[in-house]
Design a protein that fits this description.
single chain; 172 residues; Rubrerythrin, domain 2; Ferritin; 2 domains; three-stranded antiparallel sheet; 3 strands; 55% helix; globular; binds fe (ii) ion
């Protein structure tokens, strides 16, 4: 038997036997996965100027990281890292569109440039640096935010990007 779950962060559905430990689309932790029939949306209330600016900056970070990861996946020299980078690219793209919905912006376009990353070893290191940077920026954005939906998303993104940091730990 399968059940329909819904992720409170990216709002994607998941059909499966058991709740996944992490959302397969955005990486949010299990506590954000709810039964679709019980899902209640956190509506966006009026954003402060600062929150709007921070969400826009976060979209920029996610887009840049998604583009970097698509490049890294294409340039990878082994299947395991290519698989990891491609999944990371799609997760960061999901983050960009999750954030875009908060400010009612269009789904951002992601380029597939192949000259914005280095070789596999370099990309492992750059991934680590990018995820550390994103985590630090989002911690700052979270402090400056009082809007419930933005708080929920920034909190989840911090946890997810921390998971991504651990993927490359000790690998470069
Ligand atoms: Fe999700
Ligand atoms: Fe992200």
């Amino acid at each position: 038997m399968v059940i329909v779950y819904k992720c409170r962060i990216c709002e994607e559905g998941f059909i499966g036997g058991e709740k996944p430990t992490h959302c397969p689309f955005c990486g949010a932790h299990i506590e954000n996965m709810v039964l679709a029939k019980d899902y209640v949306k956190t509506e966006v209330i009026e954003l402060t100027k600062q929150t709007g600016k921070n969400v826009e900056a976060a979209i920029g970070i996610e887009l840049s990281n998604a583009e970097f990861y698509f490049c890294a996946a294409a340039k990878s020299d082994n299947i395991a890292d290519a698989t990891m980078f491609k999944r990371l690219a799609k997760i960061e793209a999901e983050h960009a569109s999750t954030l875009a919905k908060i400010i009612e912006a269009k789904n951002p376009k992601i380029s597939r440039k192949k000259d914005i990353c280095g070789n596999n070893k370099h990309n492992l290191k750059e991934s680590h640096e990018r995820e550390e940077k994103a985590t630090a920026r989002y911690a700052q954005f979270l402090e400056e935010t009082c809007e419930p939906r933005a708080i929920e998303v920034f909190k989840a993104l911090i946890e997810i990007e921390k998971d991504h940091i651990s993927l490359t730990e000790g690998r470069f």
